[in-house]
């Protein structure tokens, strides 16, 4: 019986994880759930899964949850460090890191420090602190299993392959809702249009990242840390059907692709059961429905974020931290109606241009760089 902590349990990846854990209840036990401030949802989840502890980073939400769960054998931890404290108390064998953005970095680092298998849905943790995260994992014996569908695909493809046999990675992208929109029309894109993804159901922030293709820029950096390839060996391809989740090319010319329905439950199930595979009760993929699969190069005039991703993967250091922070600020402004859609990649570029980079930053320097980049992004957006 594997013990599991789900960090970010009330979000879209957390919901997919709990859906899978309902099927795996004979082999996995939820010992901890963590969320930001959705008290009603996490209380509902706690009553179903009966964890030892829940955590809420918002104090008011934690008080509400505590009242709701009074008299039940489920502890409640509150505050900004709730995720790390819950991990320290429960020490799960598997940690699902689904707290999005920079907020998910400390708990991801804590999970690998403990030696927990890290089912990593938070790509920003590797973007900001890839060196620290991978070094801690090696030191503790922790395994990082990516839950991003693209990196899960590559991870599955390289299992059992000889060392140094991977030559190139193809990260597939649906293209989002604007793959055919003229570049000149991006400034007029509305929030409602950007939140309407053609194939995936995701949270608001990642849906906007998909629309700008900033998600692929972050994934280029993530792939560098996970698989050790140079940026020029990581290529993005538009694959509108979202069936081939990514492809690995090897030195002998072979290409292995992982395919399946566009559902987060597939990579989540793989990560939770790793190194085994767990049977699903869901419907299986029907190849006959997809007789044509297409691949095309993305248009960087429409999606300048892709060039920024390769730039950051070359520069490393604090560049990933600055990119992620600036993007989070710009997306927040766009969703609030305070900035146009095309200001998102423009703000990221401006912040990167002003960055005084550090080659191998400490965690303290990463956190300071994150704060600086957020302030700089705010200045850029207020002056535009």
Record field, number of beta strands: 11
Distance between the termini: 55 Å
As laid out across the biggest beta sheet, the strand order is 4-3-2-1-5-6-7
- What percent of residues adopt helix (DSSP H or I)? 40-55%
Low confidence ranges: none
Count of individual helical segments = 15
Based on secondary structure, the structural category is alpha/beta
What letter string, H or E per element, gives the SSE order? EHEHEHEHEHEHEHEHHHEEEHHHHH
CATH superfamily of the largest domain: RNA polymerase sigma factor, region 2, helix turn helix motif
Sketch the major β-sheet.
Answer: 7 strands, parallel
Quote the beta fraction.
Answer: 15-25%
Oligomer: single chain
CATH topology of the largest domain, what is it called?
Rna Polymerase Sigma Factor, Chain: A
What is the CATH class name of the largest domain?
Answer: Mainly Alpha
What CATH architecture of the largest domain do you see? Orthogonal Bundle
Question: Over all CA atoms, what is the radius of gyration?
Answer: 20 Å
Task: Domain count, please report it.
Answer: 2
Shape: globular
Average pLDDT reading: 94
